[in-house]
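Morning run. Coffee first, then this:
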Amino acid sequence: MSDLCRCLAVLAEQVSSEGRGSVEAIAALLKRLYSQGGDITLSTVHKAKGLEWSRVTVLFPELMPLATGDAVEERCIQFVAYTRAQHTLRFAYGRQAWNEGLRIVGQTLLAGAPEPEMPAAPALRLATRPSAARPLTIDDERAMPLFAGSAAMDTPPLIDRLMLLAEDPRPALRAWASVSLTLLRRTPSRQVYADAPLLQRLEKAASTARLAIPAFGAAKPDSLRMLVFEGGLARWKYVQLKRRGPRVISVVFGGVVHRFDAKTGEALGLPFDPSNPYLDPKALEPQT
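And here it is:
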């Protein structure tokens, strides 16, 4: 269900980029996506079942099998994906997985193998760079410190991950990543100790926000958009503007008054958390 919601969110964003979208516009977009005769065939694993090509590239192989899905079904999907190639099978990792050194390892899956005999699922391994010195501990006295964990992380890929977060639309997340980069770049070590679960949580929140479900219905003249996180998804909601001041913007959502910083859109009175609600940056633009 979450995959379906994300797909619908992307389609809705595409068709509404130049105005209000419609069901007809989504249908036309889907028809273009499934056009035949191109040099490259883009297909889901389900659509590819029973078909073969000389060369196949699997996108984001690190996502298979999904830990949240049915174990048997996920293994079947993985098997189908790996057995569509007649001669060449390639993997195209996501940028984050590539930077983290995640690679598919294990036995070779041959096209044409009998599908009932499922091969063992290849495992992901973390390809770490050998380091001559021990990882360095960085003093990090922030309320949400990155360098207070016990995971040894290579500096170059960590910089790449933080640079992605430093480009996030959310001001507080950009500031957190920028400070982390400043601390890291002062360190002459190839490895540092960091809080890996915290970094993953921030990255997940940023990724979820980029795939936020659009706000449905027409916006009222005195309404603003607020991003909320619900059940692992991010949704834009229209909220009622209560008061707009030079420092604070107050809105009403679900019968509750929420206060936000008028410059950053961050929730006031709450410690920074990637799952906190925040206002659409467009709501912060000077009113004309």
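The two ends are 41 Å apart (CA to CA). Good start to the day.
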